[in-house]
Amino acid sequence: ISLLGKEYGKADARWLYFDPTIVSLEILTVVLDGSLALVLIYAIVKEKYYRHFIQITLCLCELYGGWMTFFPDWLMGSPNLNTDSWLYFGVYLVFFNSVWVLIPGLLLWQSWVELKKMFYKGTSSGKKFQ
């Protein structure tokens, strides 16, 4: 795993040293997002009513983490990002990190559709949705 970190560090130098923003975001990701992921798995398997709340929360945490990882560096002119190399910029930074935007985006859409169905099912049966 450390070799992967060193290789990715060629695209984003902040992974090669103790960058406080990256480290704090990763600690938050491991603790909060990891816990939410376990709760979400349980909620999906057991078909719990709170599944979509947890799914939306986890997706927003992932999107926020991605934003806070890259946007401050972009505002400073990307001093830590290797934007000169097609491999490091296009593949490592854009392609691999887009997975962390695409998957939460699709899961947010899934939750939106399911919550909309539940709302219309609840309102069409004459019950108030609470």
Automatic annotation (TrEMBL):
Domain EXPERA: 1-108
InterPro entries: EBP (IPR007905), EXPERA (IPR033118)
Keyword Transmembrane on entry: yes
One GO term describing the cellular component: membrane
Cell membrane recorded as keyword: no
Compartments, record wording: Membrane
Chief location: membrane
Membrane topology: Multi-pass membrane protein
BP GO annotations: sterol metabolic process
Similarity comment text for this entry: Belongs to the EBP family.
This protein's name: EXPERA domain-containing protein
Protein's organism: Ailuropoda melanoleuca (Giant panda)
